[in-house]
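Dissemination and training. As part of the outreach component of the grant, students in the summer workshop were shown how a complex can be specified as a set of sequence lines and then modelled as a single object. The example used during the hands-on session is reproduced here so that future cohorts can follow it. Participants entered these lines:
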Amino acid sequence: MRGRAGRSLSDRPGKAGSSEARPILYLSEVDVRKYSFLWMLFPALLLYTVFIAYPFFSSLGLSFYDWPGIGPKKFIGLSNYKNILSGFMAPEFYRALGHNIVFFIWSLILSVVPGLFFAFLLSADIKGTKFLKVIYFFPNTLAIVVVGFLWGLLLNPQWGLVNQLFRVLGLGFLAKPWLGNTSTALPTIIFVTAWRGLGFYILVYLAAILGIDREMTEAARIDGATEMQIAGRIILPHLLPIIATTSMLKFIWTFNIFDIVYAMEGTQGGPAGSTDVLGTLFYRIAFGGLGSSQVGMGLGATVVTLIFLLVFPVSIFYVFIVEKRVERGE
Amino acid sequence: MMFKLNGLQKAIAWIFLALLAFVNLYPIGIMILSSFKSTREIFLKPFNLPAVWRWSNYVSAWQRADFATYFKNSILVTAASIAAILLVSSMAAYVIARFDFKFKRGIYLFLLAGLALPTRLAIIPIFLIMRSLHLLDKLSGLVIVYAAGGIAFSVFLLVNFFKKLPRDIEDSAKIDGAGPFRIYWQIDLPLLKPALVTVAMFNFIDVWNDFFFPLILLSSRVKKTIPLGLQAFFGEYTIEWDVLFAALNISVLPILIIFLILSKQFIAGMTEGALK
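and obtained this result:
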């Protein structure tokens, strides 16, 4: 390694050095000047540490206190956890958690199944599908609150377009208050979320399909495989890793759900709490909101810590996989 | 092209593809058309084209919702956040991709952990930090949060791009005595432009559309960004659907224009990020 320091870099041939995987400047001696590049790392590291990393751990600390956000903090040990997991907050907490899980499972199904289906169609030899990609992706660029407000108007029981459409089509029995009924509100919100997100999954899966080595499918075709067999036995197995990573991300972001419920059903997750998710529950606890009985930063931090415990293992696993994949240069 | 379909299969495929395009576009089309109607027309003739194209709905929504202020705030916050993210992330990515030093891998993994953790989970301490820094209800506070929150993903993407850059020019600059910052600034950044555009687009969508952080960190009307302002507007004018639809369209217009111009890069960038 010594010989590589500083000036001898020039005798490394440019591209031929690619067998060394990564171009790296090797520094051999402790020399302040040589480490002067490190300052360029600090702004990012500082911002990230102070405003992202530290707050994550700080939440954990807060969760042992009773604190309305101002005044002295009162240490109460694990009382917040008890209150949430088995005390007075438990019914609301488990109901919200359940809604998050339902949300995750259904939005996973609604992204993977149609996502793969349309990605397969788009990867076939059909002409003129380029502009479809743009159309499919567009809802993704809309703010979630915009999507929520738009569909809120469309789903208005009396004047909304959806029910008027059902009536015109002779499907009057489907003209229901979709967002006002405890049994249909959550599925409706899941559908609206899927409406916004599907295009993204289609394009991700499509890109993965188009990245598969063409020779493999050609060889299979010469060997007499049908298109269905190619799709099921060659392409689908190749897509499993990307399906796995997108599913992991979906699981993680499921706990981010807030905007769409807020825009369509309000902070209470109405009607009668049937769309209340951890995001809205947490918001009410920590930051008030209409009709909240208590504002507790400690209690809110406890909810966050519990979510964190659910999400963190998946996050670490995801980052591990991603890093490995990049290391291998895929 | 991965599959070969015969004529009938192609026709069926087209039906499905067209159906999805319809499902995607119809609500947006209704949103646009309704914004030119009167509320009465929206209620009674939802499927018709506007009898008269009422541009006045837009004037009315723009003035009543104080959109001028929201636009100014959103543009300021988004531009400042993206500039900050691009600068600090590209510097950090340069160091990580080009140099070797102790704890490098640890630092990189530490940053990467932010890739898969929703920043929202840290909101209580973020709120408290901003309060003690007197940055609550300040656009600059919001910018700091977005800049910090965008770092993990941006560094990750940029490190990968940096590794693909040829090093020949850099090496010769090194012989000419250029320091690390000059090499980064004068040689690498121009080569990195496509990657920077991708990173900027990602963060643009995130920041421009964000509702959660403004909701928590901002309170006064004059500080509101577009999504937050839209929420206030919807709370005030629940039955005037003509202006509500117009307001929705106003809030969507900037992103629609940018998306139509850059749709290719958008799609390539978004899917590339997800495939990683």
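Confidence is low (pLDDT under 50) at residues 1-22 of chain A. Students were then asked to discuss how this feature might be tested experimentally.
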